[in-house]
Write a structure and sequence with these properties.
homodimer; alpha+beta; Arc Repressor Mutant, subunit A; two-stranded antiparallel sheet; 6 strands; about 25% strand; DNA-binding
DNA sequence: TATTATATTAGAATTATTCTTAAACAATCA
DNA sequence: TGATTGTTTAAGAATAATTCTAATATAATA
């Protein structure tokens, strides 16, 4: 976290209370929240915090390469880990789960002559926990 | 196309003029259009055609397993090829290009104990054509 | 401290999609 | 064939996520 703050400062980015709050919240979260979800939580601590600020801050952090954005269903979710990795969206428990598999496109940044700057690989299905629960129930 | 129509009929799906128009348009298209784009084109031939019908038909075709849906940017795009394959979105020419690479998750339908029913792998970057153009220009 | 630039807020606007309801159409049965 | 029933469509309202706008607040600089 401190390293990120240092990097952002060096880029000349003003670190306001709101921005630090979003950054901190995302880094302590493993649930890949939406802007809306982040706003709902932060509003308890900072009642004046606006949803637009959350969107702006997330944009800024994405531009700065400190977080990544995932488009899942109709909404954008945010991941504090900026390195490309895959995700599974479980249609039973609705969780978004990190999937760490080796991916040649992520590594090389190229595929069939095209240049790849960002990878969004989302698997839709049922997570191992829910599979077990379903099998156990039957 | 005829084989698909036969399959849909056997599932008891009524094939109206509107539904056939959407199916046919998508099959003759390689541009991965949105519902909006399909509607705009079809309205020229069928001025009464409603956007809601296009959405309904695309939903129906997806449920029937005859097409696939891609979430790219903020919009849903449709692909007449129902088999899982990857895509590249070129941020220069805005095209969505099919990327055929071997993918163990697509093949097996499993990853790290999770069950995978649908794969959405989108690479964001610059396509080979635009890369060449850029290099040529410099 | 005064000035300037940047960030934030609140709410309006936009965009893509879904929902609703009445009318149109298709399939089934008498 | 004609009546009945169920499904599909059209039009527009409703919704949800996101972006834009303009005024205010805050931070950085001189």
């Amino acid at each position: 976290m401190d390293a990120i703050i240092e990097k952002l400062k060096q880029k000349g980015i003003v670190l306001t209370i709101q921005r630090l709050a979003v950054l901190e919240f995302l880094h302590n979260s493993s649930s890949h929240p939406t802007a809306e979800a982040i706003h709902t939580k932060l509003k308890k601590k900072y009642p004046m915090m606006s949803l637009a600020t959350v969107y702006n801050t997330l944009d800024m952090l994405k531009q700065a390469g400190e977080i990544q954005e995932l488009t899942i269903g109709n909404a954008k979710h945010f991941d504090p880990i900026p390195q490309s990795h895959h995700h599974l969206y479980c249609r039973v428990c609705k969780r978004i789960i990190d999937v760490e598999i080796s991916c040649p496109v992520c590594k090389s940044g190229r595929v069939q002559g095209h240049k790849v700057e960002e990878v969004q690989a989302v698997f839709y299905g049922i997570c191992s926990d829910c599979l077990q629960r379903e099998n156990g129930a039957q």
